[in-house]
Amino acid sequence: MKDxxxxxxxxxYYFHYLYMIWGVNTIKMKGINVRGRLRKRRIKVHxxxxxxxxxxxxxxxxxxxxxxxxxxxxxxxNKTKExxxxxxxxxxxxxxxxxxxxxxxxxxxxxxxxxxxxxxxxLKIVKKNVLKHTDAIYFKNLWEKKNDGEFIVDKWIGYALPxxxxxxxxxxxxxxxxxxxxxxxKNSKWMPQFISTVVTGIFVAYHLGFExxxxxxxxxxxxxxxxxxxxxGDINLRPDYNxxxxxxxxxxxxxxNGSSSPHSTAVSEIGMKSVLGVISDIxxxxxxxxxxxxxxxxxSKLLPVWK
Length: 307
Fold this sequence. Notes:
Elements: H1 2-11, H2 13-40, H3 48-61, E1 67-71, H4 77-80, E2 89-93, E3 105-108, H5 116-130, E4 137-139, H6 149-155, E5 161-162, E6 165-167, H7 176-184, E7 191-193, H8 197-207, E8 212-216, H9 264-267, H10 272-285, E9 289-292
């Protein structure tokens, strides 16, 4: 029966639209519940429009150009970071801050006692490498089970701004174009998400009006940039895979042992390889161009290389 329902939802545009709305509303309800708990502590949960206005103000203040770089965690970042211009806009997240760049917008998403070690590492990275460049640091995925409102208030408020967001579900590759177009429709209150934070960054860059968007570290496998031999950042802020709970060590593998396995978002039925091709085509229709940061990244086989 479940397989039959999946086929039905995937075969019909309107049925799949209803499926997306159901998934989005389910997460919205969770987000509203979290907002209620944070309100008791007089903490505001910010809208997507707040984030966009905040980011545009930073773009104007720093005189940033019409190029946006989105930082992923693949090893190719250690080489491609050199193509980032002084006046380019940069979006990062989580451990990306181990690469000391002039970040303009930054996301974190780990804030609970079950993921305390990860969260504390991210907080140290934000304090050391990110805050000196921007105050547009947003805490997303408040609704996830791993996150705890009290933990976020105690540890993160003052450093990151909570934001409303939702993840849009997609039942099959047939409906990928429909799903991505849904995400690209601006919602003033809720930030759209799909597959990974890099894709979220593409949505944000589009809504901010950038015409050229460059993705870094989207390698579909191999090492994290901070586990590679050419990493020159602070090794003390890297995750300790032997101690940290709540961090997927099969993504890019536990790469310090030298092994290489595909990233989970690359091997899934609706993975990054499919997403990059489809969203690139959609953006081209709007005269917006998506690039791979360099030939050292596997994404260069799917996207034109930024030069």
